[in-house]
Specification:
- It is a single chain.
- The chain is an alpha+beta fold.
- It has helices at residues 2-23, 53-62, 109-120, 139-143, 172-178, 189-192, and strands spanning 67-69, 75-77, 80-86, 91-96, 154-158, 161-165.
- 29% of the residues lie in helices and 14% in strands.
- Strand 1 and strand 2 form a beta hairpin.
- It is globular, with a radius of gyration of 23 Å.
């Protein structure tokens, strides 16, 4: 009996050693993602995705918007855990999945509000990604400086819940697909506001 057990242990240990040695092979080092870049990416602002297709391949690996499009072009949740549309109130309520920034701070609803309202739709920002949000209530008015930033139909109703009010006559399906663009990813105010001109170019401080 003891000899049988010893033999089994020896076989298990030998098999384990073979697996460990196999995993050291560079060919089995892990997943490989091949990316063709026409030029080097120097700016890691996710909203550049909308205007700079070259940056898209890198930025889509670094940031996550609320939704993504599957192979059939249908909406799936990404940073969002689930969402509910209320046609009477013209609202989309979105609960966030538990995801974290690279410094281990959890992504909050206010990170999305800040990125859309204070950065992309800020009237002095000429970024064309603003067009992604024009189905949201008052988005065009905010962009044209005809109304306050705080009139935008996007609020963090809870720490991890976002509510979007869309304009009357809006194409809700189009809006959801627009929010699958990496340009609609969240941003951290405490990071961006420290270096508003260089935050997306300094890899030592970016999250």
């Amino acid at each position: 009996m003891k000899k049988t057990v010893s033999l089994l242990l020896a076989v298990v240990m030998l098999f384990g050693s073979m697996l460990a040695l196999t995993s050291c092979d560079p060919k089995d080092a892990g997943a490989e993602i091949s990316i063709y870049l026409g030029k080097e990416v120097f700016d890691f602002d996710p909203s550049d995705y909308y205007a700079e297709s070259n940056a898209a391949q890198v930025l889509s690996l670094l940031y996550e918007p609320l939704f993504r499009l599957n192979a059939k072009g249908k909406i799936e949740c990404a940073a969002a855990e689930d969402y509910e549309i209320d046609k009477e109130k013209r609202t989309i309520t979105i609960d966030l999945r538990e995801t974290y920034w690279s410094d281990e701070i959890r992504v909050k609803a206010e990170d999305f509000v800040y990125a859309w309202r204070d950065i992309i739709l800020e009237p002095n920002n000429a970024n064309p990604a603003a067009a992604l949000f024009y189905d949201i209530e008052n988005a065009l008015e905010v962009k044209n400086a005809d109304d306050s930033l705080f009139s935008l139909g996007v609020v963090a109703t809870e720490t991890y819940q976002l509510e979007i009010t869309y304009r009357e006559g809006a194409n809700v399906d189009r809006l959801l697909k627009n929010l699958a663009s990496v340009a609609a990813s969240p941003l951290r105010q405490d990071v961006v506001s420290l270096n508003p001109m260089t935050w997306s170019k300094d890899v030592s401080t970016i999250v």
